[in-house]
Amino acid sequence: MSEPAQLPSKMLIEAKGLGKAYRLFARPLDRLKESLHPFGKSYHTDFHALRGVDFAIRRGEAVAIIGRNGSGKSTLLKLVTGILGPTTGELHVRGRIAALLELGAGFNPEYTGVENVYLNGTIHGLSRAEVDARLGAILDFADIGDFAQRACKSYSSGMFARLAFAAMIHFEPDILIVDEALAVGDVFFQRSATAG
């Protein structure tokens, strides 16, 4: 992934011919046999999660990716965030990304909610002073009360989602990616999360 000069400044994400294939092995031993075979014999089949995907997303746009289970939605989001690399095509991403791809990802269950906010702020390139300035707004939005001072391992999935989402939006990313993580929140949280 790169930031080529030819992209217009308002373009945040651009994909051309994007594809992702996974190697599927019938048995774990086949992976080893393939890696050690002196003539490069293949023991796998390719599963194409994505093929020939083209799209462009400009600054200020909100985009939903809708499809059946197994259609490649999460794979596409992992490509955009850099968790996975594409097998084919080009992907260019410009700007700072914040992602909620899996509930609890990036949070240490032994840390308190506040400690996790500081940890994630650091991961996203914010200074302690910048997190200090946002902490009150994050905790107000998350609305988890005294649990902010308790270890995250004691949180319900809804509380976890509220805190993670509140932190991500207050870190002001250029690109915010959410993959079903908000589905666990109560109806009041879901309304407030989609209102902004």
Please describe the topology of this protein.
Blueprint: E1 11-25, H1 28-36, E2 44-58, H2 73-81, E3 88-93, E4 97-100, H3 113-123, H4 128-142, H5 157-170, E5 175-178, H6 187-195
Parallel strand pairs: 4-5
Antiparallel strand pairs: 1-2, 1-3
Helix pairs in contact: 3-4, 3-5, 4-5
Short description:
With 196 residues, the chain is an alpha+beta fold. Helix content is 34%, strand content 22%. The protein has two domains: 11-95, Rossmann fold (3-Layer(aba) Sandwich); 99-195, 3-Layer(aba) Sandwich (Rossmann fold), CATH 3.40.50.300.
What does this structure look like?
With 196 residues, the protein is of the alpha+beta class. The chain is 34% helix and 22% strand. It is built from 6 helices and 5 strands, in the order βαβαββαααβα. The chain has helices at 28-36, 73-81, 113-123, 128-142, 157-170, 187-195, and strands spanning 11-25, 44-58, 88-93, 97-100, 175-178. The strands form 2 sheets. It has a 3-stranded antiparallel sheet with strand order 2-1-3. A two-stranded parallel ribbon has the order 4-5. The longest helix has 15 residues, at 128-142. The protein is globular, with a radius of gyration of 20 Å. The protein starts with 10 loop residues before the first strand and ends with a helix.
